[in-house]
């Protein structure tokens, strides 16, 4: 983190092209960038990346589809409500999720994942969070979402290779973990501040840390994202066009024994404009146990966290934030 300019935080920015699929990961550029990423992640769990491999036209088509979906009548969106899904996929209406455990968030979302067919082994086994998406009846919508997710997974792999190298591990350590990783892509709409009547302390997205290992976020440039510095001060984050925000989640903090930081963040609805953003939440396989990487544990000291299994941990966090899963939030 470089500091603040005009009340906005200036995030370190990195080029991920040295970690592209098929690239020479032993190159000087890859080694140098991995070392700098390690320094940044030890200080803050947030950074910016370009060279991520997501084509501009794919991103533009996706954001156009997102705007079209959220402009639908409420009844059309509620027809694919997340409460109708067996695998946590679908529309989440205003104030039905509370990420800070207080007032409901002033946003609406569509939660998606990799589409799993009925004969997928995890679906057959009844594993939670595995199954089909719910799609709106919009021409070309599913295709735009799936094209974007596919492009973003390449960005994830580039970042994971950089992170593995930053930890002094084989470049493919993270992506080589057993089981099928979960890629939960979320579409989000925040209405303008003046069109909502918030309760005291109510935000577009309450203060929280992410749950998994890695999040890659794209937004429309309208602002609203805030990160909590170690001093406790909340500062605005500006995202330059074409770049992605990368932040770490709680499971990565556990995995690295707190060497790397899972930073609290929130969203304040910007004035005068609708805000559209989309995080891709990356989580290891549902059944994978996450425990401290030995090289991150000082000699003679125990790990700071007990091992955590991905799936049950995620479900516990969803239970604490979604009203359809927790009647105390209704």
Summarize it.
This protein has 330 residues and is α+β, with helices and mostly antiparallel strands. The protein is 25% helix and 21% strand.
Annotation keywords:
16 strands; 21% strand; 7 helices; 330 residues; 6-stranded mixed β-sheet; Jelly Rolls
Account of the protein in words:
With 330 residues, the protein is of the alpha+beta class. The chain has a single domain (3-329), classed as B-lactam Antibiotic, Isopenicillin N Synthase, Chain (Jelly Rolls). Helices cover 25% and strands 21% of the residues. The protein has helices spanning 28-43, 56-70, 74-78, 121-124, 141-166, 250-255, 310-321, and strands at 3-5, 8-10, 13-15, 46-50, 90-92, 108-112, 182-190, 205-208, 214-219, 225-228, 234-237, 244-248, 265-267, 275-283, 289-290, 308-309. The strands form three sheets. An eight-stranded mixed β-sheet has the order 3-4-12-9-14-7-6-5. A hairpin with a 2-residue loop joins strand 1 (3-5) and strand 2. Helix 1 crosses helix 5 and helix 2 packs across helix 5. It is globular. The N and C termini lie far apart (38 Å). The mean pLDDT is 91.
The SSE order reads: EEEHEHHEEHHEEEEEEHEEEEH
| Spatial order of the strands forming the largest sheet | 3-4-12-9-14-7-6-5
User: How would a textbook summarize the main sheet?
Assistant: 8 strands, mixed
Please give the share of residues in helix.
25-40%
Structural class: alpha+beta
Number of E strands: 16
Shape: globular
Top CATH class: Mainly Beta
Give the end-to-end Cα distance, rounded to a whole number of Å.
38 Å
Q: Low-confidence runs (pLDDT<50, min 5 residues)? A: none
Report strand %: 15-25%
- Rounded Rg: 19 Å
Q: Using the 3D structure, state the CATH architecture.
A: Sandwich
Q: Please report the number of helical segments.
A: 7
Overall mean pLDDT score?
91
CATH superfamily: B-lactam Antibiotic, Isopenicillin N Synthase, Chain
